[in-house]
Amino acid sequence: MDLKLDHHSKDGIEIVDVEGEIDVYTAPRLRELLIELVNSRFYQLVVNMEKVEFLDSTGLGVLVGGLKRVRAHDGSLDLVCTQERILKIFRITGLTKVFGIHDTVDEAIAARRAEK
Amino acid sequence: MATVELSFTPLPAHVRTARLVATAVARRSGVDESLLDEVRLAVGEACSRAVEGHQLYCPAEPVRLCLTDLAGRFEVEVTDTCAPGLRRSGGPGGSGVAGDPPGNAAVAAEAGVPAGLGVAVIEGLADEVQINETAAGTSIRMSWPSAGATR
């Protein structure tokens, strides 16, 4: 399995569940989904990356692009990730300062609510 | 002589294959388990960069990967045949010595991510990185310590 995508609503926030590898081959599918969600007026997103096995700079670009799109509508895009091997690329690129990264979906939702 | 040589059609689908092969050879060469994720990511970045360049400028040419088990070091060299001048003239990402191809640069620019991010990631992961440009293309050579290395 290269990449599996799913999404569902929880407490007014759209949770995007990502499973598999996000790279130059599969990242376009994630990009299309994020664009589709924004076009469908889902502006509060949480991307759950706990089952992501690989993420490269192409994937980072897609996530940053998604963040820009939702912010254009005063929305948010937070991440759920505890895997050090995935967090490493965020640290190397300094993007830990750009994204809210949480340990669980519930924590991400709670953090977003606290900001409202 | 390289331990393993791999050439593949410049399609994004094959980048994963290159990552898997590189990781397997790195493990066999004695690269520490804790470094294998870095090998996998760095090789993936270099191959992605080469694939995107080939798709734009030389889609009929294969991307080449050489994996070499040296004494105490594991070396990976990814070579493309995209003339650097074409890369530099092709898009916003072409201002540096080894900028990303225009396709990825366009996506990166849209996202507000600096062009050349892939190369920056490689330099943050590999122990030693050399980027060599010739009229025939660019090679990115990366290496990590392996079994028998003195630290």
Describe the protein.
The complex is a heterodimer of chains A (116) and B (151). Chain A is of the alpha/beta class and 116 residues long. Helix content of chain A is 42%, strand content 33%. In chain A, helix 1 (27-39) packs parallel to helix 2. The N and C termini of chain A lie far apart (38 Å). By secondary structure, chain B is of the alpha+beta class. Chain B has a single domain (4-145), classed as Histidine kinase-like ATPase, C-terminal domain (Heat Shock Protein 90, 2-Layer Sandwich). The relative contact order of chain B is 0.19. Chain B is globular, with a radius of gyration of 15 Å. The longest helix of chain B has 22 residues, at 36-57. The chains are: A alpha/beta (116), B alpha+beta (151). Chains A and B meet through helix 2 and helix 3 of A and helix 1, helix 2, helix 4 and helix 5 of B.
User: Can you count the beta strands of chain A?
Assistant: 5
Question: Helical element count of chain A?
Answer: 4
Largest interface: A-B, 21 and 28 residues
Assigned CATH class of chain A? Alpha Beta
Radius of gyration of chain A, taken over Cα atoms and rounded to an integer in Å: 13 Å
Q: Please tell me what the overall shape of chain A is.
A: globular
**Cross-sheet strand order for the largest sheet of chain A:** 1-2-3-4-5
Poorly predicted residue ranges of chain B: 90-103
Secondary-structure-based class of chain A equals alpha/beta
CATH superfamily of chain A: STAS domain
Query: What's the story with the biggest beta sheet of chain A?
Result: 5 strands, mixed
CATH second-level architecture of chain B:
2-Layer Sandwich
The fourth-level CATH homologous superfamily of chain B is Histidine kinase-like ATPase, C-terminal domain
Secondary structural class of chain B:
alpha+beta
Radius of gyration of chain B, in angstroms, nearest whole number: 15 Å
Mean pLDDT of chain A: 95
Give the SSE string of chain A. EEHEHEHEH
